[in-house]
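User: Fold this; tokens only.

Assistant: Input:
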Amino acid sequence: MSIQVPLGECVPPNTRHGVSVSLPLWEDNVDYEKGDPRVLSRMNSGYPRFFIAKVIQALAERLRERFALPGEAIMLFPSRACAERCVAFIHAQASKNEALYGLPKPESVRIVEHTVAPINKKAAALDAMQAVLDSNVTIYCTMFPEALFPLAKQYWQHTGNGISARLAEYCLHIEHVNDKCELEANSYSRLGRSPSGYHRKVATGATAEPSAAETELEADAYLEERFGRNLNAKYADDMKWALRRRIAGALLKEEKMQGAQVERGVAGLNASDVFLTATGMSAVFYAHQALLHMRQAKSVCFGFPYTDTLKILEKFGPGAYFLGNGEGSDYEKLEEILATHCQQGQPILAIFTECPSNPLLKTADLPRLRALADRYGAALVIDETIGSFANIDALKWADMVVSSLTKVFSGDSNVMGGSIVLNPLCKLYTPLQTAIAATFEDLMWCEDAIFLERNSRDFVQRVLQINQNALAVAELLRSSSKVAKVAYPKYTTPENYQQIMRPNSNAGYGGLLSVVFVGGEAAARQFYDSLRCCKGPSLGTNFTLASPYTILAHFTELEWAAQYGVRADLVRISVGLEPQAELIAMFQAALEAIQVS
């Protein structure tokens, strides 16, 4: 195998709405984080919470021209609640950084509500989603002074609640259809005729011809539906229910016979206990919001998590304690925090942990965390993204399990999604149901649900092959004298991982591993640059994907991350479905390219 995707192009190549981007050289990642025009000017794609998709940028610019005051920027959201939280976040963070942002006036951060709808019957006839949607789509535009854009972008990144690229694409399609109909109406008017419909301002440069993107979209939709890979979007509600049932392990008879899924093994669990979110971070965000609805209190982040999980706990609500090692004396520190808060009459709200953690692949002692949570009245929230419920049984120990469905559940790297699962056997089940009902919104766009359902049909079979491939790669790397350490659940806190593995022969250690080299950063650069696979952000893809994780996730806080063992020269590898012999040959060649000792 030999894949080298050009810098800034979508990963994998030619994937509509791909969720990764090629950063093929170590220096590309460094320069991206520095904001070097050499890299930024070539970015045609990116991970959607960090890089606002170009189709979203195009819609935002169109609406900014229509609604913004001079000097205003814009951020787009699918619900008023999301937009209002963005406004509150901007004000809260600006007040904490007054020297940098000043104190914006209340009226300077505002919301504009924009309904996307065909302007007349002819336009409606060109709207393929009319039969699908219960009502017109409304986009909520948060408007703010341009200097506050970094704060709005933080909210977008942390919460994962911005509009999806497919939703933006639909909105742009309707805008173009309306432009076309308006141009025709204007032509009629010049001839002295009065067609039905109303007139509006046509966008600058509007044309009656469909754009290249729209032509491509129509072709893609035809192929997906014609060859049975996707159902028509009118089945989106059914597909959401199928996804919820699949995640709950509540299977139909034929699904069990096909081995399409695993059973969760939690009595009473059903699809109504599963909540779909637009992104994985949105699942973490809404889980935290539901808990805060129950009571306002601090949480504890146990173990070094994915960067935005900690940011959510710290920036939304009263804050959080961070126990970044997630092992050893951190258990005693955790109990001390829990006990102290109980004595003060302010019990800790929740313990959040990843299973295993990203990127160090540590697994917490879940039975021990469960016992501590019960003793001191805290909820236990477990992110099972890395382990996946095909391999581990995290729900048994949790009050809530969250997951990024963007990763191995989807695998195709072309759609975002997340999930929250409530444990019906936990003490907090009923109050959590009430809190979720009060705070949760289903913001998964219908077309995203269609793609996610299609992609996940063979989830279990893919995980089995990825388990086998990743173990082979991990063993190869461990055997090399050039490798200082391989982080992988089989070798990293194995006793904790093995006690929650599913009791079947298909369960394994997942597809993610991290490696550091004896030769430090110089060796890491040579290894990374020599790899002939896709290289960029994300994980859990059907194809092998590598990244210098710490550079991308913690570039402005490298020394802080290093305190917890997250080294700047760490290479994270998400192993895919390629033939195992080809994978071994590729990684062996990359090891041989290391010339430093």
